[in-house]
Write a structure and sequence with these properties.
The complex is a heterodimer of chains A (248) and B (414).
Chain A: E1 7-19, E2 24-31, E3 34-36, E4 40-44, H1 51-58, E5 66-71, E6 74-75, H2 81-91, E7 92-95, H3 107-117, H4 122-135, H5 151-163, E8 169-173, H6 181-196, E9 200-204, H7 208-211, E10 216-221, E11 224-230
Parallel strand pairs in A: 4-9, 4-10, 7-8, 8-9
Antiparallel strand pairs in A: 1-2, 1-3, 1-5, 5-6, 10-11
Helix pairs in contact in A: 3-4, 3-5, 4-5, 5-6
Chain B: H1 3-16, H2 18-58, E1 62-66, H3 78-86, H4 92-101, E2 107-121, E3 124-134, H5 138-142, E4 146-149, H6 154-159, E5 163-166, H7 168-174, E6 184-187, E7 190-198, H8 203-210, E8 212-216, H9 217-223, E9 233-237, H10 241-258, E10 270-273, H11 274-317, H12 319-327, H13 332-368, H14 377-403, H15 407-412
Parallel strand pairs in B: 3-8, 5-7
Antiparallel strand pairs in B: 1-9, 1-10, 2-3, 2-9, 4-7, 5-8, 6-7
The chains are: A alpha/beta (248), B alpha+beta (414).
């Protein structure tokens, strides 16, 4: 059953070194991971374990110093900046801890952003952005600016933005780090929903209860994969049963 | 991302920071305003000189014999100026010689003139006037029109009658209530009967003529002349341009003979033509226009630096935004275009405002002076091109910096 699911991400010996002048920091030391389509992965690890670096490399914001990174069958480790930009635009939807919305733009315009760089025409863009906002239940907040929205709403705008160009991967970096627990639960239930609809999700978190929403947890220690195991809350793969969401 | 899209993003950004945007375009506004205003005024002066001034001073197809040029262009050597200063004034002998040399002239006129402190009628007086003793034809050469009464007639001239045609300003001052016709005016110890009033000329240089008194040359020669038989200027108007040169050649020969100049000796008189005056004006004009690019480029460079600085600040303030845009798939080119569109738009807007302000200044000049406001299309085109140039060149460095930001660092920027 697992063999029939396409592999989205394969890495071989992924390494990343930073030259800090006096010393060389080894952020990643040969990471080998495989992520299949429609997986919901949580990446955990203590600070300094290299999970942010891994996210940056997977998100094509950064290139590895050594090793291979194959995204949807395309080796991307040696691509130029502009090619990486195109891959970020089509394959990856980012959700950040601090939301990173454009402060003076409406929710709608924020969600349109990836489509602008994808070259989608204005009319279609607006339509798709509105649909994405509907998907996160913010159809009535389209003309609001970020400062007129609550934290949870902002993060949902960011999720709509991440999804609007139908990426292969939704990449979330501490998506609940700036939210209270009830809003966190709301966002996680949205993730679980999306996952159930077939979205591949990779999420960095240091909170165990958040990580438990994923179906597999990859733990990094000192730039290497320490463990990779399925969680208990979700069935191993392609579950049709509704996930348990703990309401506080 | 298309240019249109980049412009839209830039516009949104500029609208969001209205005050900052206004300050950043000030430099360009000032530069372009200056450019347009100066060109408007210079072109206006140009038109004025060519259409009104030169024509009214000398008329077309006209030359005059004078001691030395009345308008000096300043490119004569000191020695030449001294030589011209030694030239004798023309006199009535020269007039006769010249009259015989150009029998086909359309008009032939001569005059003497002097400034006088005051003219009286009873207890009323007008100060600072100009008195002209003009021959027959003189008022026609000048193209002066009569408002009231009559001009000087051949009979006045032949008999040297003590009659005068006065300028409108003198008429107003001396005869505020009734008509001046048939009344007496007094210059020094001499009395003259007013037979006419000139039409107002107005304008930049017309003011001097509006306070002038014209009388028959013979009357002037008998009463007010500083030197008997002296003539300041002999004017000859020919029927067309081709006759002008022939007449000038004949006049030169006749004058040389009458003044007894030997072959090889320099002319001790000077021919003045309206085309000569226009070339003098052209020299002044070129100097003015040559000074414009220097002054304009200084303010545009300053304006460009202002825009560049504000754009650099803007890049720093918007580091996170740039990071977000890059994460969403903006290429270096996209970011570059966005910032270039912004700086170009600021600068073009500045240029547009500058054109408007410059035109406004030109209109003000037109309103309060006789100079027409004349803005040539090339000046507008130049202003727009300069605006675009300043915008692009001041935007390139900030735009490059923005486009080369590392997205990870940019996203993490506080």
């Amino acid at each position: 059953m697992e063999a029939s699911t396409p592999t989205v991400i394969v890495t071989h010996g992924l390494s990343k070194e930073y030259d800090m002048g006096a010393e060389i920091v080894h952020a990643l030391r040969g990471v080998d991971i495989q992520i299949r389509s429609n997986e919901f992965i949580a990446v955990m690890g203590p600070s300094g374990s290299g999970k942010s670096t891994l996210m940056n490399v997977i998100g094509c914001l950064d290139t590895p110093t050594a090793g291979e990174y194959i995204l949807n069958g395309v080796p991307v480790q040696d691509l130029e900046d502009d090619e990486l930009a195109r891959i970020r635009n089509r394959e990856i939807g980012f959700v950040f801890q601090t939301f990173n919305l454009l402060p003076r733009a409406t929710a709608l315009h924020n969600v349109e952003l990836p489509l602008i760089y994808a070259g989608v025409k204005a009319g279609e863009r607006r339509e798709r952005a509105a649909r994405a906002l509907g998907l996160v239940s913010l159809a009535d907040r389209m003309q609001h600016q970020p400062n007129e929205l609550s934290g949870g709403q902002r993060q949902r705008v960011a999720i709509a933005r991440a999804l609007v160009n139908e990426p292969s991967i939704l990449l979330a970096d501490e998506p609940t780090g700036n939210l209270d627990s009830s809003t966190s639960a709301e966002i996680m239930s949205l993730f679980v929903d999306l996952h159930r609809q077939g979205q591949t999700i990779i999420m960095v978190t240091h909170e165990h209860d958040i990580a438990e929403f994923a179906e597999r947890i990859i733990t990094l220690v000192d730039g290497m994969v320490a463990s990779s195991h399925a969680t208990l809350t979700t069935a191993p793969f392609a579950s049709t049963a509704p996930p348990v969401i703990s309401e506080p | 991302m298309s240019i249109f899209e980049a412009l839209r993003v830039a516009l949104t950004q500029l609208w969001a920071h209205k005050l900052k945007s206004i300050f950043s375009l000030l430099g360009v506004v000032i530069g372009i305003t200056f450019l347009i205003a100066v060109i408007t005024v210079v072109e206006g002066m140009n038109r004025y000189v060519q259409e009104d001034f030169a024509g009214s001073l000398f008329g077309v197809n006209t030359f005059s014999v004078v001691r030395r040029p009345t308008v000096s262009t300043g490119n004569r050597s000191a020695e030449e100026r001294r030589r011209l200063d030694r030239n004798p004034y023309p006199d009535l002998d020269d007039v006769e010689a010249l009259r015989n040399a150009v029998p086909d002239a359309r008009y032939f006129a001569y005059r003497d003139a002097r400034r006088m402190r005051e003219v009286w009628h009873g207890v009323r007086r007008r100060r600072n006037i100009r008195v002209i003793g003009g021959s027959e034809d003189y008022q026609d050469v000048q193209g002066w029109k009569i408002e009231e009464g009559r001009g000087l007639t051949p009979l006045d001239q032949q008999r040297g009658l003590k009659v005068a045609v006065i300028g409108p300003e003198i008429a107003e001052k001396l005869f505020p209530a009734g008509s001046p016709l048939g009344r007496q005016i007094r210059l020094e110890a001499h009395r003259y009967e007013v037979v006419g009033v000139f039409e107002r000329k107005g304008g930049l240089l017309g003011n001097a003529w509006d306070a002038a008194i014209l009388m028959p040359y013979e009357a002037y020669n008998q009463t007010l002349s500083r030197k008997r038989d002296r003539v300041l200027e002999i004017s000859v108007k020919t029927n067309n341009e081709s006759e002008l040169q022939v007449a000038m050649d004949a006049a030169e020969e006749a004058l040389r003979i009458s003044r007894g100049l030997r072959p090889g000796e320099e002319n001790n008189f000077y021919f003045q033509t309206s085309s000569g005056l226009l070339s003098a004006w052209e020299t002044i004009n070129n100097i003015l226009l040559a000074a414009v690019p220097g002054l304009v480029s200084i303010s545009l460079v300053v304006g460009g630096i202002v825009i560049m600085n504000i754009m650099l600040v803007s890049v720093t303030q918007r580091t996170r935004e740039i990071g977000v845009r890059k994460a969403m798939g903006a290429t270096q080119r996209d970011i570059m275009m966005q910032f270039l569109a912004e700086s170009s738009f600021i600068s073009l807007l500045g240029a547009a405002l500058g054109i408007l302000f410059g035109l406004g200044l030109g209109k003000l000049v037109e309103r309060f002076s006789p100079l027409p406001a004349s803005i040539p299309p090339w000046a507008v085109a130049t202003a727009i091109a300069l605006g675009l140039l300043v915008g692009l060149s001041s935007g390139i460095y900030p735009a490059r910096r923005a486009s080369r930001l590392n997205p990870i660092d940019a996203l993490r920027y506080e």
